[in-house]
C-alpha cells in the first residue's frame, strides 16, 4: 500500500519542493516522519521567522516553497509574515497539521477550527481536504493556485491521521499533471500601447517590484533606453526593478498622491509595469495626475488591475509585454535603436563617522565599496531607506528585498532564506535596531545551518521612522518610540553567531570583508545617527 505520506513526499520531490521551512508540533509529526533523502527541513524557532525565511527563499529562487506550521497557534504566529508574502506575491504553500479527523467537531486542544478561513485574506486560496484521499490532490491544487495567475501564498490544513491512510490509485495521474499559463496581449492592444508610447513627447516608465520578481528587468531596461524615458520605481518597492545609478533613473516615487502627481507632471504618457497603481502610504491627497498625463498599466495580477482607481490596465505577462513593445517600437522607428545611455550617476559622498556614530549613508558607502556588485541586500531599516537608495549602486536583478507589506520581522529571516536559495551570491542584511527584534531567532537558524549572511544592525536607539511620522502627523511626543539598552552582540553570540561592533569606516569594511569570506553568519553592530527617511 502507498500511504498518503509517501505520495506526498514523492509529489514534493517531483515538484521541486525540496526544502520545508517549519516549526513542528504533535499534529505535524506524522507528516515529517520518513522524510526522504533529498528533502531538507529548515527549522525556525518562531513561525514569523519560518515564513520570513520561506518568503526570502521563494523570492530568490523564483520558485514556490513549502512551509509547515503547527495548527492554528503556529499559523497565528505567522500571520504578520504572511502580510508580506501576500503583498510580494510570493508563491508559498503553507501547510498546518490538524487534529485527528474524528475529533475535530468538539474542538479539542490543537484543533484548527474553520482552518480554511483562518488565513483569509492573506492567502489567495485555502482548503482542508474533506477526506484523506484528497490530500495529495489538494496540495497540488494549492501549489498551482500559488503559482498561476496572481501568485501568492496558499494554505492547506491536514488532519494528522490522514498521513498513514492508503492513497487512491488515481493519484498516479497527479505527478504528470501540469498547468501552463500564457499571458500575451492581443496584437491590437500591443499596437495601442506602442502607438501611444511612440507618439509621446515625454514618456515615463514606472517600474514595480514584480519586474524583478518575474525577471523582466532586461526587457524593461531595453524599453526605457529605446524610449529615452524617465524611469521611476513605484512607491514602497520590495525589489529592485531597475539599476539605481542608471542615467534614466529618477528615483523611487513618493508614496503619496501629491508626490506621485508632482513627479509625473510633464510626462504625457506614463506606463506602469509590475506595480499596483499606486500604493499610497502617506496621506497627502491630490488629483491623481496632472491634466495631459495618460496612464497605462501592465500587471500580471487581475485584482491589481481591477482595483486601480485610474488608468488603462492591461493584464498580461510583464516580460512578454515589455519585449513585444521593444520590438514594436523598434519597428516603428525603422529598426534603429539609440545607443544606450552610459553616464551612470555617481553616489554622493557621505559624512565621516563622528565618535563612532555613523550617518547611515556612511554605512552604505562602506557596503558599496566592500561587498561585490552581485551582493543581494535584504533591507529592513525604515528611517534610512532613502539614504540606502541614494548611496548604493545596485545593478543586478535580485539585489534588493524589503518587507512588502511593511510588516517588520522580515529582514533577518528573509536574508537567511535568500542565502539558502542563492549560495552563489553574497547576502547582506541591513536591519534597524527596532526591526531586528521581530525576527531575531533567525540568527539561531543561520548559526545552526551555517548560512553565511552578514547581518548589519543599524543602532540608533529608536523607532526612527515613527519619530519622523509623529512629526508628519503632528502628534508630538508619544510613548513607545525608543529602544535603548539592546546589546545585539550578546544576543547574537547567545544564538551562536559571532558578532562585533564597528566604530570607524575602516573597521566596518574589515568586518564586512571577513563576514563575507566566512562559512557561517556574522553580525556587525553599528551605531547610527537618526536621519529622516
Ligand atoms: C510588525 C510591525 N510592527 C510595528 C510596525 C511599526 N513600525 C514601522 S517602522 C518602525 C520602526 C523600526 O525601527 P528600526 O528598525 O530601528 O528602524 P529605524 O526607523 O530606526 O531606521 C515600527 C515599529 C511595523 N511596521 N510592523
Ligand atoms: Mg532604529
Number of strands: 19
What is the mean pLDDT? 96
Helix content: 25-40%
Instruction: Give me the Rg, rounded.
Output: 24 Å
Structural class by sheet pairing and helices: alpha/beta
Tell me the span between the first and last alpha carbons.
60 Å
- Give the names of the bound compounds: thiamine diphosphate, magnesium ion
Low-pLDDT segments: none
Envelope shape: globular
- Provide a count of the helices: 19
Q: Could you describe the largest sheet, including whether it forms a barrel?
A: 7 strands, parallel
Strand content: 15-25%
Write the topology of this structure.
Elements: H1 4-14, E1 19-22, H2 29-32, E2 40-43, H3 47-61, E3 65-69, H4 71-87, E4 92-98, H5 115-118, E5 125-127, H6 135-147, E6 154-159, H7 187-199, E7 203-207, H8 209-213, H9 217-227, E8 230-233, E9 249-252, H10 257-264, E10 269-273, E11 294-299, H11 302-307, E12 312-315, H12 318-332, E13 357-358, H13 360-370, E14 376-380, H14 385-391, E15 400-401, H15 411-421, E16 427-432, H16 442-448, E17 453-459, H17 464-473, H18 488-494, E18 499-502, H19 505-517, E19 522-528
Helix pairs in contact: 1-6, 3-4, 3-15, 7-12, 9-12, 13-14, 13-19
Bound molecules: thiamine diphosphate and magnesium ion.
Would you give an account of this structure?
The protein is α/β, with parallel strands linked by helices. The chain is 35% helix and 17% strand. It contains 19 helices and 19 strands. It has helices at 4-14, 29-32, 47-61, 71-87, 115-118, 135-147, 187-199, 209-213, 217-227, 257-264, 302-307, 318-332, 360-370, 385-391, 411-421, 442-448, 464-473, 488-494, 505-517; strands spanning 19-22, 40-43, 65-69, 92-98, 125-127, 154-159, 203-207, 230-233, 249-252, 269-273, 294-299, 312-315, 357-358, 376-380, 400-401, 427-432, 453-459, 499-502, 522-528. Strands 13, 14, 15, 16, 17, 18 and 19 form a seven-stranded parallel β-sheet that branches. A six-stranded parallel β-sheet has the order 2-1-3-4-6-5. It is globular, with a radius of gyration of 24 Å. The N and C termini lie far apart (60 Å). The structure holds thiamine diphosphate and magnesium ion. The site of magnesium ion (MG) has 7 residues, from loops.
Amino acid at each position: 500500500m502507498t500511504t498518503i505520506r509517501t505520495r506526498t513526499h514523492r509529489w514534493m520531490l517531483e515538484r521541486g519542493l525540496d526544502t520545508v521551512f517549519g516549526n513542528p508540533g504533535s499534529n505535524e509529526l506524522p507528516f515529517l516522519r520518513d522524510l526522504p533523502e533529498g528533502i531538507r527541513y529548515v527549522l525556525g524557532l518562531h513561525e514569523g521567522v519560518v515564513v520570513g525565511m520561506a518568503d526570502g527563499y521563494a523570492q530568490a529562487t523564483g520558485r514556490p516553497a513549502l512551509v509547515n506550521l503547527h495548527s492554528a497557534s503556529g499559523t497565528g504566529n505567522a500571520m504578520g509574515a504572511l502580510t508580506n508574502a501576500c503583498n510580494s506575491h510570493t508563491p508559498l504553500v503553507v501547510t498546518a497539521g490538524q487534529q485527528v479527523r474524528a475529533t475535530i467537531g468538539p474542538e479539542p486542544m490543537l484543533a484548527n477550527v474553520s482552518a480554511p478561513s483562518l488565513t483569509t485574506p492573506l492567502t489567495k486560496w485555502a482548503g482542508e481536504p474533506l477526506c484523506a484521499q484528497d490530500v495529495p490532490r489538494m496540495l497540488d491544487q494549492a501549489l498551482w493556485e500559488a503559482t498561476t495567475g496572481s501568485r501568492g501564498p496558499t494554505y492547506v490544513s491536514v488532519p494528522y491521521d490522514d498521513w498513514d491512510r492508503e492513497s487512491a490509485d488515481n493519484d498516479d495521474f497527479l505527478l504528470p499533471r501540469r498547468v501552463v499559463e500564457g499571458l500575451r496581449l492581443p496584437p491590437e492592444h500591443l499596437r495601442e500601447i506602442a502607438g501611444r508610447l511612440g507618439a509621446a513627447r515625454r514618456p515615463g516608465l514606472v517600474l514595480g517590484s514584480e519586474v524583478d520578481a518575474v525577471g523582466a528587468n532586461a526587457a524593461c531596461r531595453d524599453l526605457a533606453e529605446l524610449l529615452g524615458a524617465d524611469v521611476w520605481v513605484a512607491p514602497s518597492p520590495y525589489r529592485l526593478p531597475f539599476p539605481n545609478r542608471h542615467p534614466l533613473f529618477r528615483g523611487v516615487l513618493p508614496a503619496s498622491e501629491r508626490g506621485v502627481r508632482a513627479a509625473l507632471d510633464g510626462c504625457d504618457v506614463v506606463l506602469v509595469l509590475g506595480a499596483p497603481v499606486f500604493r499610497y502610504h502617506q496621506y497627502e491627497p491630490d488629483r491623481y495626475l496632472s491634466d495631459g498625463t495618460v496612464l497605462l498599466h501592465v500587471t500580471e495580477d487581475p485584482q491589481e488591475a481591477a482595483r486601480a482607481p485610474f488608468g488603462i490596465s492591461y493584464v498580461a505577462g510583464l516580460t512578454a509585454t515589455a519585449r513585444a513593445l521593444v520590438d514594436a517600437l523598434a519597428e516603428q522607428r525603422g529598426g534603429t535603436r539609440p545607443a544606450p545611455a552610459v553616464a551612470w550617476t555617481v553616489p554622493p559622498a557621505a559624512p565621516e563617522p563622528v565618535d563612532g556614530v555613523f550617518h547611515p549613508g556612511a554605512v552604505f558607502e562602506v557596503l558599496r565599496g566592500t561587498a561585490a556588485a552581485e551582493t543581494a541586500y535584504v533591507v529592513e531599516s525604515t528611517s534610512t531607506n532613502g539614504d540606502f537608495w541614494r548611496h548604493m549602486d545596485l545593478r543586478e536583478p535580485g539585489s534588493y528585498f524589503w518587507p512588502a507589506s511593511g510588516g517588520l520581522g522580515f529582514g533577518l529571516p528573509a536574508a537567511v532564506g535568500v542565502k539558502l536559495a542563492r549560495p552563489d551570491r553574497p547576502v547582506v542584511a541591513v536591519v534597524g535596531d527596532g526591526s531586528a527584534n521581530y525576527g531575531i531567532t533567525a540568527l539561531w537558524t543561520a548559526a545552526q545551518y551555517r548560512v553565511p549572511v552578514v547581518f548589519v544592525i543599524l543602532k540608533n536607539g529608536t523607532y526612527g521612522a515613527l519619530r519622523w511620522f509623529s512629526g508628519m502627523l503632528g502628534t508630538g511626543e508619544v510613548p513607545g518610540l525608543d529602544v535603548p539598552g539592546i546589546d545585539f552582540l550578546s544576543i547574537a553570540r547567545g544564538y551562536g553567531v559571532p558578532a562585533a561592533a564597528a566604530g570607524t569606516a575602516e573597521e566596518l569594511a574589515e568586518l564586512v570583508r571577513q563576514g563575507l569570506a566566512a562559512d557561517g553568519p556574522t553580525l556587525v553592530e553599528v551605531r547610527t545617527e537618526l536621519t529622516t527617511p
